[in-house]
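Researcher: I'd like a structural prediction for the single chain below. Treat it as a standalone chain; there are no partners to consider.
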Amino acid sequence: MLSAGAAFIGTIAVYILAKKVYTALKWAFLVPVATSTAVIVLVLTATRTSYQVYMSGAKWIDLFLGPAVCALAFPLYDQWETLKKQFAAIFAGVFSGAVIGILSGLYLSIWFHLDQDMLRSLLSKSVTSPVSMDIARLIHGIPSLAAVYVMAAGISGSIFGPFLLRKLRVMDEGAIGIAMGSSAHGIGTAKALEYGEEAGAVSSVAMTLSAVFASILCPIAVSFILRG
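Model: Treating it as a single chain, here is the predicted structure.
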């Protein structure tokens, strides 16, 4: 069984190694969040370390998530003039993305015959984890399950999003930022920063607006479901 200290140091080491491998190979399926998560799960399973023991050390990493999100304000500040000029397009694009994200969650639930609890948990999959969990509580979903869906959406968006953007010949950094921030939230924003500072800034705005729109639209969607 791993100790709390080993969990803390090991998580950082695994992520750094995963990032080095991704930087060297640039293969979409090796996005660091996905590969490091898979390795950590395998190690915890092999060593029979409980999640509670792991988090007793890894919680210190979790505490840095807030400052890390706040750090996204730097590209926002640098690109402020550009963002003001594109605000209408960003607003419309993110609103469309939020609606599509909610409807896709709804229809996936219907398609796979998921129960009401899972359906409510899936609706907010395209916003950042803390907001998604709060929305899940508000609409009587399962917050922990919502967080899992968010991770799945973020990782899959970071892997397949660039491929789709390439196939659709989307080259504009603003459009890339809207797409990644709206569909893959924080993980997508980290990916958008690889395209440039403008893409990262727009993605930060898109991630924030998506959270606002989802907070309003998810309860409305649930009310229509119940009415139906």
